[in-house]
């Protein structure tokens, strides 16, 4: 996985973005949403695809700080690597969770949805995190640089668990990946088809991917497995027994329990 150096500075962050996300947009106050230009002095940047930004934007500054602290404690307890910044006079500290490279497996829209759901799960109940920051196109104040509103630097308060980040939340990831709702139209259906479909749902709900993987000698750990449909060494296949669905992020194959069994048998 790509990691940001433990000695976090503006130079390290800028070098990292230019190397791995060269299309990321910047703003110097005049030239908005442009790719990095070394001749400019930037004060804002868009979010990285593998990043989650958290800030509380309510009018009660004391409540904002309380919610930031509670969120930081929860992130720390869960083992996330994150940095906390603050601007003197600002509404609340800024939390940046870097190097969540597993987010790169999702589409941009899915990443936005993931961040929104993650904030609802991780932030205190009834708190008001700035949801606009879930969209990585949203420009925010650049780390270590004077804030455009307060003319004070966005200082690093602490960088917790340097470079020891974990993967993203599996339940939210699965929910986002398979969030497309199927539209069911009313139509005449044969009684036999109705019975077949009912039995099919019962079978799907009773199947466990682990049993299938054991039968076909496929390695797995947690909710990830080595995809049998390409030369996979990274456990790229994600599966959910609850939803009876699977998807490989390496070769982009996907389906339900039945399609997996058919493909393993060679009946694609």
Give an overview of the whole structure.
- The protein is an alpha+beta fold.
- The chain has 2 domains: 10-172, no CATH class; 185-264, DNA Primase, Chain A (Alpha-Beta Complex).
- Helix content is 31%, strand content 15%.
- A 5-stranded antiparallel sheet has the order 8-9-10-11-12. A 4-stranded antiparallel sheet has the order 3-5-4-7, covered by helices on one side.
- α3 crosses α4.
- It is elongated and about 65 Å long.
- The two termini are 33 Å apart.
- Mean pLDDT is 85; it is low at 181-187 and 194-203.
Whole-number mean pLDDT = 85
Based on Cα principal axes, name the global outline: elongated
Which percent band covers the strand fraction? 5-15%
Q: Evaluate the radius of gyration.
A: 22 Å
- Structural class label: alpha+beta
Distance between the termini: 33 Å
What's the count of strands?
12
Specify the helix fraction band. 25-40%
Spell the H/E element sequence: HEEEHEEHEEHHHEEEEEH
Going across the biggest sheet, name each strand in turn: 8-9-10-11-12
Number of helices: 7
Outline the low-pLDDT stretches: 181-187, 194-203
What would you say about this model in short?
This protein is an alpha+beta fold. The protein has helices at 10-20, 61-78, 108-122, 170-177, 191-206, 209-215, 257-264; strands at 26-27, 44-45, 52-54, 82-86, 94-97, 140-141, 155-160, 220-221, 224-225, 237-240, 245-248, 254-256.
Salient structural properties:
four-stranded antiparallel sheet, 268 residues, DNA Primase, Chain A, five-stranded antiparallel sheet
């Amino acid at each position: 996985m790509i990691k940001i150096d433990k000695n976090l500075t503006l130079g390290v962050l800028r070098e990292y973005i230019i190397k791995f996300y060269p299309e990321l947009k910047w703003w110097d106050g005049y030239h908005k949403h442009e790719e990095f230009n070394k001749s400019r002095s930037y004060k804002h940047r868009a979010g990285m695809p593998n990043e989650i930004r958290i800030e509380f934007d309510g009018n009660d500054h004391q409540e904002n700080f309380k919610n930031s602290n509670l969120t930081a404690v929860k992130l720390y307890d869960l083992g996330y690597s994150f940095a906390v910044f603050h601007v003197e006079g600002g509404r609340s500290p800024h939390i940046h969770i870097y190097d969540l490279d597993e987010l790169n497996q999702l589409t941009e829209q899915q990443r936005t949805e993931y961040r929104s759901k993650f904030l609802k799960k991780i932030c205190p109940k009834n708190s008001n995190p700035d949801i606009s920051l879930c969209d990585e196109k949203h420009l925010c104040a650049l780390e270590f640089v004077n804030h455009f509103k307060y003319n004070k630097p966005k200082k690093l308060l602490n960088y917790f668990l340097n470079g020891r980040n974990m993967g993203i939340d599996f339940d939210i990831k699965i929910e986002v990946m398979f969030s497309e709702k199927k539209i069911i139209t009313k139509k005449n259906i044969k009684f036999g088809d109705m019975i077949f479909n009912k039995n099919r749902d019962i079978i799907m709900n009773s199947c466990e991917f682990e049993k299938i993987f054991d039968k076909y000698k496929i390695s797995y750990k947690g909710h990830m497995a080595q995809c049998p449909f390409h030369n996979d060494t990274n456990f790229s296949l994600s599966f959910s027994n609850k939803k009876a669905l699977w998807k490989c992020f390496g070769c982009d194959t996907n389906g339900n329990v039945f399609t997996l069994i058919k493909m393993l048998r060679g009946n694609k």
